Here is the input.
Amino acid sequence: MNMVTTIKRGATKDEIQFVFKKIASRSAKRGGFDAYKFCGTVKFNDDALEIQKRLRDEWK
Here is the structure.
């Protein structure tokens, strides 16, 4: 079941936080997808500029 949540213009910070808590509790109950575990930075061993040059050279 999909759910649509609408936050109206002029909503207070407390109202918005309440909506987020409500969504989080429903996701936890259903075992929903936890996108936060994929958030963060990617660690590379090479220099970023070298990686970028290598990727651009693939097209040649």
The radius of gyration is 20 Å. The mean pLDDT is 80. Residues 10 and 26 are 25 Å apart (CA to CA).
